[in-house]
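Troubleshooting: if your tokenizer reports a length mismatch, compare against these two reference records.
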Amino acid sequence: MFQDFKLVDDRPVVIQVKEYLKRLMIKGALQADQKLPSTREMSGLLKVSRNTVIAAYEGLADDGFAYAIPGKGSYVAAIVDQSATDSGGTEGPASWQVDWKAKMNEYAVSAVELDMMKQGIRAQKGTISFTSIAPDEHLFDLGDVKRAFMDRMAIEGQVLLNYGYAKGYKPLMEYLMRYMENKGVDISGKDMLITSGFTEGFDMVLSALRPSGRRGAAICENPTHHTAIKNLKLHGFEITGIPLERDGIDVERLEAVLKANRFDLAYLIPSYHNPTGIVMSPAKRSAVMNVMSRYQVPVIEDGFNEELRYSGAHVSPLIATVGKGNGVIYIGSFSKVLFPGLRVGWVLGDRALIDTLESIKRARTIHTSTIDQAILYQYLLNGNFDKYVKKARTEYKRKYELTKACCEAHLPEAQLSGDGGLHLFLAFPPGVNTRQLLAACTEQGVIFTPGDKFFIAEGEGVHTLRLGFSRVTDENIERGIRIIGEQTRKFLQG
């Protein structure tokens, strides 16, 4: 006994000794009321200091796994839990098996089927991957983040480590309300809820707006964000896709569809649309809002990548175009601009809606991490955001232009779209199936995201793909796109 004890470098030795002995007790290798070796003897057996063993024995006693008899030593305490071996044969809990897959409901099964990450290709080491549209971590200004953390903890650290409010951290909410007001949003009659990123906010809004007793009906751009498609389907919405033009959604087609059908909501990404990268023009934004207002269809606006504008004038979000109107729900996040690890997003909308969402949030997750909110608030308050965005915008613009130039050189057959952000969208001639192209490119060490994932109906967009360039080196951008071009020509020639 005790021969299998091995120390690891990254944990305190006392805790390792205590947990090792605890495991022996739980497994029954050390029995109730059995005397433990003396601290001197155990120190020799485990090759640790005697003081370490003394502290470990005290920790076991504190946890109820050992007791000391003065003058005699330490003993193993009786453990109340019965181990699986004490179940008394094959009919007890030890042999109890549940077929969990058979118990999964339709929602759970659908979640697995729609899980893009689970079904995606696992990149081998050395693979050039264009699948990610996350920010490049090499741009993160860690010094400013550490300072923000230390500054806020010094001010109210004990408060931040306790429960927070479902609605959110008040200083951050006040900052973000001003931030949205500076985008041209009329915040009168509106309120805000802080969420754990965009997806939680979207999921809660859909939970609140999902019709009772019938399937919901939603309008989206086609193609659109895969996560939105997944969540709409999981909430039982039938989705109608409206095609995109070079400056955004096809307004004539949108109005024709609204005339013929009843819809519960619309989901739109007006800026640096995912996956196409298209920015909806100011004129089209006004036209879309007029149509939605006429047919009384609430709009969920995804503020995706709004800050990554590489050229042209600022374009106000849809929620700014409706003034005091309350028909738009804006869901924002800094995940693609700042730090995805800080899971902070927000929902801005009518006060009555936010009041309901606050109760849903409290019932589900109580509140978004207060520490995450406070770090973000202090980081913004310290004036770091503008400095970081300027740096990020410069670097991503450079990569965007390099990627675009490489596509034009090596993929002249493809039609490109994307006015900024962290990706480009490519549409090939009908003879190119990008799933088959992906398989061929994977063998050459290059992967990307097939475009059909972003389309509403099965079989659409099979000739498209999305290229995320934010985390790819210049050398790999050039090499990877050249390989995609070589494989594309094989398809076209074949």
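Reference record two:
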Amino acid sequence: MMLLELLNEVVDIDTDIFLSLNRMHSPFFDYFMSTYSGKWIWIPMYAAIWYVMLRNFHWKVTLFCMVGLALVITIADQTGATLIRPYVERLRPSNLENPISDTDMVHIVNGRRGGRYGFPSCHAANTFGLAFFVWFLFRKRWLTVFMMGWALLTCYSRIYLGVHYPGDLIVGTLIGLLAAYIVYRLFLKVSGYKTMKKVPHIYAPILVGGLTIVGILIYSTVMIL
């Protein structure tokens, strides 16, 4: 009984935090967050990460890296979507069956409510899985800071858009970390890779990702004029 009461209290706190963050919105950030949260907008940054690998690693190591990244995303995504969500069945805050989805309580952007269940967040699992794997792989401060900031803002965008509670994102992040760590350890054994002290072109993902963010800012500004 005490455990049930504790879980209910945690859920209530999670909901309160969500509502506090979700209600802070504006037309500009409606455009910004919905675009930032998209999957395809970040393809240039992913390509820049691949470019750094190609310029620094033997082609076989690069191939192992790409397979590793694919495994991280697959494990993180499917752990949440296939193994956990169907059993936990926690409704997204935006879902019409959720009592808090009343339009006065939850801010929805462009009428997009996502799927039915949202625990854990696959966006958080995938983005942080990528960010942690890049951290383990390169061990470069500014690239790590940028990737973690990128993943963190992605998580916030999911709250802003009304499709995830903070708890969904925290658990998704932990899944991404675990997937990245397991795959990275496997990658080391298979490839024999050792961390490089100097990594030429390491700032390419930061440059491309930063330009993408600038582009989103410009787009969002134009759209509200």
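Descriptive notes for reference record two:
- The chain has eight helices and no strands.
- The chain has a mean pLDDT of 93.
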